[in-house]
Fold:
Amino acid sequence: MGLRYLATHQTEEVTRARIARGVCLVATMNERIIGTVTYAYPSRWPGVPWFDQPGVAGVGQFAVEPNQQRQGIGSALLERVEQLAREDGVTELSLNTAEPARHLIQYYEKRGYRLVDHTDATMPNYRSVILSKRLETLRPQTSTSPHRA
Structure:
């Protein structure tokens, strides 16, 4: 597709910095990482106003080993992130992906995410879409949550 996601070629230092902004969850099999996702709340992305709203959290660094896909691993990771977000009182769980990556957009849409904006703020070689899922919260927002970045 000609896309160049930062996550496909980022250094270990960049990976550490990106996951340090939130809570990194991993899926393992035989002591090997086969999936990952990072949850950040609050999530502030310069140049993307959607993330500046109260109650908006972010999902990133989401991936499952290609030979392990379509086994429910990614769904389980996202479900756990949604649970953490609800515990934090989050009202919207949001992410970005490449606009040309129609298969990824469809994956998220099947899980209840909807298009809320577009951005070039991530500075890749393509325009990104901002997708968000409205969550039912479990409790009012507080500033003492252990999940907050």
Observations:
- The domain at 6-134 is CATH 3.40.630.30 (Aminopeptidase).
- The two ends are 33 Å apart (CA to CA).
- The chain has a mean pLDDT of 85.
